[in-house]
Design goal:
This protein is mainly alpha-helical. The protein folds into three domains: about 100 residues, Fumarase C, Chain B, domain 1 (Orthogonal Bundle), CATH 1.10.275; about 220 residues, Fumarase C, Chain A, domain 2; about 80 residues, Fumarase/aspartase (C-terminal domain) (Ribonucleotide Reductase Protein R1, domain 1), CATH 1.10.40.30. The chain is built from 19 helices and six strands. Strands 1-2 form a two-stranded antiparallel ribbon. It has a two-stranded parallel ribbon with strand order 3-4. The longest helix is centred in the first third of the chain and has 37 residues. The radius of gyration is 31 Å and the shape is elongated. The protein starts with 18 loop residues before the first helix and ends with a helix.
């Protein structure tokens, strides 16, 4: 029976909670999305209580049936939420009391909201990370497919946003495949710390009841159980780790976004984004704006903010649980939602991009991007690299003054810089040769990139089967 306060915890209190306090401390608007995990955890807890004879099988049956009805009510929008009940745990417990009567009061035996919420968040994040990995794999497949389709397209590679050396577009796209692959590996590693069951830690010190945590963990699919009850109810490291991984992943999305914004500008003209993923101007009829990449780039800051918010939230907290931790879910949910939205929109956007191969090739053919290859050629003729670098630097200066490319200089002009230069230099300075001669592991040679695509396809096929 509840006290006059109306709270399930109110036995110690003589005054009703102020309405402003109820509104201020309520988290139900945020944590109600944990309802399915809370009910799943409660069902497993209930089964464990019956297995260990802490409650009867009949009580367990009633509780599990009642929890099932509550879940259906929530899913059918037939459940009423109320700030006075604080959080999703109290809502479900209160609804269960109304549904099955006093037997509902037995469900919380050997359990605290402290280990209960820790369980719910771990279950939520476990599912969220698995889904993020699945969606990232789907997007990687798009990148690999684009690389394979455009294996012959050449564009300038950049350093300092200045044209540097020719590379394959496929090589550039596969660089992002690698970035997202590391993100996937980080999320997989994060799962090892997420997938640990805290239930049984109770408020902070464990419980006196003869519970079977291993059985509960098996029911909920946890391979490990937390080793320290104090740590279990106050640990949010796994959330910080996720937010750090999400921030890195969003950094990669932001870098890709920046390039798509630049490449779609008239000054580059390398790509055209599909009309379905662009917007216009309210005043300038000619405009086609890359709003999707810009928004992804902007949303990156939100995820960074969630990480900093979580670190700040935890940095001064004593053991064990503190109500500050209630704020963790809004930060976590915002980042999972934001990251998922960005992955989904890019998976849809990327296949529709039109790559302007002619414009890219023309850009790769201008600006003396063959200078390093000429220097390497001279090294092959016996000149020290630093001498070759200086020699080619003089040739570049001459070419720029005469509005020519190095490959456009006559043999006589080239001889004025070094008599080691022979007619075979022109083959070395061709775009095709500049690509194909870069055979070092991870380089842009076509054979290298095709091999990388094959490895990626095999890996992605394995990910899909898991």
């Amino acid at each position: 029976m509840t006290q006059p306060n109306g709270k399930l915890w109110s036995g110690r209190f003589s005054q009703k909670t102020d309405v402003s306090v109820e509104a201020f401390t309520s988290s139900i608007d945020i944590d109600k999305r944990l309802y399915a995990f809370d009910i799943e955890g409660s069902v497993a807890h209930c089964k464990m209580l019956a297995k260990t004879s802490i409650i009867s099988d009949d009580d367990a049956f009633q509780l599990i049936e009642g929890l099932g009805r509550i879940k259906r009510n929530i899913e059918h929008n037939e459940f009423e939420f109320d700030d006075s009940l604080e959080d999703i745990h109290m809502h479900i417990e209160h609804a269960l009391l109304q549904d099955v009567g006093k037997v509902a009061l037995k469900l919380h035996t050997s359990r605290s909201r402290n280990d209960q919420v820790a369980l719910d968040v771990r279950m939520y994040l476990r599912d969220a990370v698995r889904f993020i990995i699945e969606r990232l794999v789907a997007m990687q497949k798009v990148l690999v497919s684009l690389a394979k389709q455009h294996i012959d397209v050449i564009l300038p590679g950049y350093t300092h946003l200045q044209r540097a050396q020719p590379i394959l577009l496929a090589h550039h796209l596969m660089a992002y495949y690698e970035m997202f692959d590391r993100d996937i590996e980080r999320f997989k590693d994060n799962l090892k710390r997420i997938n640990v069951m805290p239930l049984g830690s109770a408020a902070l010190a464990g419980t006196t009841y003869p519970i079977d945590q291993k059985y509960t963990a098996e029911l909920l699919g946890f391979p490990k159980i937390t080793s320290n009850s104090l740590d279990a109810v106050s640990d949010r490291d796994f959330i910080v780790e996720f937010l750090a991984g999400a921030s890195l992943c969003m950094t990669h999305f932001s870098r890709l976004s920046e390039e798509l914004v630049l490449w779609s500008a008239t000054e580059f003209g390398f790509i055209e984004i599909d009309d379905a993923f662009a917007t216009g101007s309210s005043i300038m009829p000619q405009k086609k704006n890359p709003d999707v990449p810009e928004l992804v780039r902007g949303k990156t800051g939100r995820v960074f903010g969630d990480l900093m918010g979580m670190l700040t939230l935890l940095k001064g907290l004593p053991l064990s649980y503190n109500r500050d931790m209630q704020e963790d879910k809004e930060l976590l949910f915002n980042s999972t939602d934001t990251l998922n939205a960005c992955i989904e929109v890019y998976t849809q956007l990327l296949p529709g991009i039109k790559f302007n191969a002619t414009t890219m090739r023309q850009a790769a053919s201008a600006g003396c991007l063959d200078a390093t290859d000429m220097a390497d050629y001279l090294v092959g003729k016996g000149m020290a690299f630093r001498d070759a670098h200086h020699c080619v630097g003089n040739a570049v200066s001459y070419a720029l003054q005469h509005k020519k490319e190095l490959y456009e200089l006559t043999l006589d002009e080239l001889h004025s810089f070094s008599d080691r230069i022979e007619k075979d230099i022109y083959n070395i300075l061709s775009l095709k040769q500049m690509i194909e001669r870069r055979t070092s592991y991870g380089g842009t040679a076509t054979a290298n990139v095709m091999a990388a695509i094959k490895v990626a396809e095999e890996k992605l096929a394995g990910e899909t089967k898991q």
